[in-house]
């Protein structure tokens, strides 16, 4: 079984800027710099045949490159149930179109449809028992964070291997987006 997701890789300069913001929240498990990305579709565990079918569908992806803007911070979950700290990503029509096309390709490849609404973000930390006043202070202190926009000219199919020190991601395949 393979644990897969489709994402937009972030430029090194953006990953570096985001990782430099991290820290200061006891109970937060910060994402490693190399693991920062913008998930378009979490697939989960699939067998190798389904993975090959998904890959085949993604190869046929005919979508233009999109501009991505990371700006602001937020959290998923409220109060003591907060589970994720993230950098917000602007939900543009072009990005939504790309995500919808990825979703359709993954579904054609044999993965059940995603039920959650697409909420573009970059996960910065997972929160387990984190001090909520510190989380709120972090969000407030970095609410004006704004990175230069970048052009996403490819999406990547990643595998995820859970390890004691956190997930290890490996790029399995790249799918270029149209740049003309």
Overview of this structure, please?
The chain has one domain (2-176): Alpha-Beta Complex (Cyclic Phosphodiesterase, Chain: A), CATH 3.90.1140.10. It has a four-stranded antiparallel beta sheet with strand order 3-1-9-10, covered by helices on one side. A four-stranded antiparallel beta sheet has the order 2-7-6-5, with helices on one face. The chain has 180 residues and is an alpha+beta fold. Strand 9 (154-163) and strand 10 (166-176) form a beta hairpin. The chain is globular and about 45 Å long. Helix content is 27%, strand content 38%. It is built from four helices and ten strands, in the order βαββαβββαβαβββ. The mean pLDDT is 95. 27% of the residues are buried. Helix 2 (48-59) packs across helix 3 (93-108).
Rg over alpha carbons: 16 Å
As for the number of domains, it is 1
Total E-strand runs: 10
Global morphology = globular
CATH architecture tag: Alpha-Beta Complex
The percent range for helix content is: 25-40%
CATH topology: Cyclic Phosphodiesterase, Chain: A
Low-confidence segments, ≥5 residues, pLDDT <50? none
- Element pattern in H and E: EHEEHEEEHEHEEE
Report the oligomer.
single chain
| Biggest beta sheet summary | 4 strands, antiparallel
Number of helices: 4
As laid out across the biggest beta sheet, the strand order is 3-1-9-10
How large is the share of residues in beta strands? Answer: 35-45%
CATH class: Alpha Beta
| Averaged pLDDT | 95
In angstroms, what separates the terminal alpha carbons? Answer: 37 Å
**Pairing-aware structural class of the strands and helices?**
alpha+beta
The CATH fourth-level homologous superfamily = Cyclic phosphodiesterase
